[in-house]
């Protein structure tokens, strides 16, 4: 009996007991759907996290001041970084594309009789849009000339523009921060919420020199941090090494002494987050895979019942010349067809479920923009695994059927 004929016979046998076959398939459907859904949601989470980290900027390296110690206990950051350090990094590190100092600021933003307290307010350099990969949607960003002259200008986020100006055009309007007038020259592209749900568009950016001299009234050159963008992803390690060596020389740190700064590569954070989301996805998939084993046991039980019910049929087939391997193949094909059908339906349901869960997440948090990621490799593996389940759990009933004695089978009532 060739394979095609065997499949036709198996399909006819399954069609005689549609309800039983459907209930048998249900266990595999649930298992495959659960695995596909969990893997797809896990990969969606990973893609979302990676997208958020990319939103922090292009190939970003963050340089922070070192931590002071008192009695062996770490205290606040020391003011060890300066704007001159940032300029030196930009000029003397070949692997560096752009640099911006970061100076913290805060306060109410006032326009007319409306006031608003932004979630973030920073003093930054002119290359901030390059480092953060965040250009203005309208207007322009401030220039090096604005920074060098501590010009009273600013760029605001979409949320700040909406709160202060509603539907009006904010460009060239004057706002006040701590009684200092600042002209709005640009509005940033909308970014939405970050991975922890914070509004990234609730932000005001000002030249760091303006923050230091006019808002803080400080004559010192220290900054809170320095953000650096490497030229390429491959040059991240080179840029980090060049920055570290340059600052050691500039800060006169001798061999064996602890540096008064920290250089943090965002790629390391991205890799750690990738490992975390991957581990969670694997764990969820393993849990969901247990239901596949339950479905496999269900297939084995139903096939054993089928062998018992069709004992006389098996005897007749053997009496007319069917060999043991023909009987084995027939029942094995039936089990594989059941599990494969369950796999196809399960993958379809899993894809729909993952898209539905993603839509629900995005409906509760519209700014999250959780991506829909359908894992084709996971779906393929699920289908192959479903066929393997049918083969593994269907082998024992098929082997039992093939070993029946033809005479005893014919006598079976």
Rg, rounded, reads: 33 Å
* Element pattern in H and E: HHEEEHEEEEHEHEHEEEHEHEHHHHH
Task: Tell me which oligomeric state these chains represent.
Answer: single chain
> What is the count of DSSP helices, taking H or I runs of 4+ residues?
13
Count of DSSP E strands?
14
Give average pLDDT, whole number. Answer: 81
Low-pLDDT residue spans: 70-74
Number of domains: 2
User: In percent, how helical is the residue content?
Assistant: 55-70%
Distance between the termini: 27 Å
The main β sheet shows up as: 12 strands, mixed
Strand content: 15-25%
> Based on CA inertia axes, which overall geometry fits?
elongated
Helices and strands: which structural class?
A: alpha+beta
3D structure, described in words:
This protein is an alpha+beta fold. It has 2 domains: 3-54 and 271-411, no CATH class; 79-259, no CATH class. 55% of the residues lie in helices and 17% in strands. The chain has helices at 3-15, 18-55, 83-92, 128-132, 144-148, 158-165, 208-215, 236-250, 266-309, 311-319, 324-364, 376-402, 406-411; strands spanning 60-65, 67-70, 73-77, 96-104, 109-111, 114-116, 120-124, 136-139, 153-156, 174-177, 180-188, 203-207, 225-230, 261-265. The strands form 2 sheets. Strands 1, 4, 5, 6, 7, 8, 9, 10, 11, 12, 13 and 14 form a 12-stranded mixed sheet that branches. It has a two-stranded antiparallel ribbon with strand order 2-3. Strand 10 (174-177) and strand 11 form a beta hairpin. Helix 9 (266-309) packs parallel to helix 12 (376-402). The two termini are 27 Å apart.
């Amino acid at each position: 009996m060739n394979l095609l004929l065997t499949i036709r016979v198996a399909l006819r046998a399954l069609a005689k007991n549609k309800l039983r076959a459907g209930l048998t398939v249900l266990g595999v459907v649930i298992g495959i759907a659960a695995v596909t859904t969990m893997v797809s949601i896990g990969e969606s989470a990973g893609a979302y996290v990676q997208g958020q980290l990319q939103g922090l900027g292009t190939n970003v390296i963050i340089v922070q001041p070192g931590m002071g110690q008192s009695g062996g206990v770490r205290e606040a950051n020391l003011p060890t970084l300066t704007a001159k350090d940032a300029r030196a990094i930009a000029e003397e590190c070949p692997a560096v594309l752009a640099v911006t100092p970061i100076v913290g600021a805060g306060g109410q933003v006032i326009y007319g009789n409306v006031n608003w307290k932004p979630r973030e307010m920073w003093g930054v350099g002119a290359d901030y849009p390059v480092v953060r990969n965040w250009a203005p949607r309208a207007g322009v960003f401030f220039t090096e000339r604005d920074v060098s002259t501590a010009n009273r200008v600013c760029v605001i986020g979409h949320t700040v523009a909406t709160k202060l100006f509603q539907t009006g055009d904010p460009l060239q309007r004057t706002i006040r921060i701590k009684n200092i007038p600042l002209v709005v020259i640009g509005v940033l592209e909308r970014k939405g919420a970050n991975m922890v749900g914070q509004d990234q568009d609730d932000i005001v950016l000002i030249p760091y020199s303006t923050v230091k001299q006019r808002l803080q009234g400080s004559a010192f050159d220290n900054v809170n941090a320095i953000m650096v963008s490497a030229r390429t992803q491959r040059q991240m390690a080179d840029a980090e090494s060049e920055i570290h060596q340059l600052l050691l020389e500039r800060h006169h740190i001798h061999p064996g002494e602890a540096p008064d700064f920290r250089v943090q590569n965002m790629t390391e954070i991205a890799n750690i987050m990738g490992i975390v989301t991957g581990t969670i996805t694997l764990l969820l998939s393993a849990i969901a895979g247990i239901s596949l084993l339950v479905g496999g046991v269900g297939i084995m039980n139903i096939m054993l019942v089928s062998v018992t019910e069709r004992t006389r049929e098996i005897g007749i087939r053997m009496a007319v010349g069917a060999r043991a391997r023909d009987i084995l193949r027939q029942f094995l094909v039936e089990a594989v067809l059941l599990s494969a059908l369950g796999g196809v339906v399960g993958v379809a349901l899993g894809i729909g479920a993952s898209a539905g869960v993603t839509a629900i997440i995005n409906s509760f948090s519209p700014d999250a923009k959780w991506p829909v990621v359908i894992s084709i490799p996971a779906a393929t593996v699920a289908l192959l695994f479903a066929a393997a389940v049918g083969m593994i759990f269907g082998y024992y009933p098929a082997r039992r059927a093939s070993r029946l004695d033809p005479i005893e089978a014919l006598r079976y009532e």
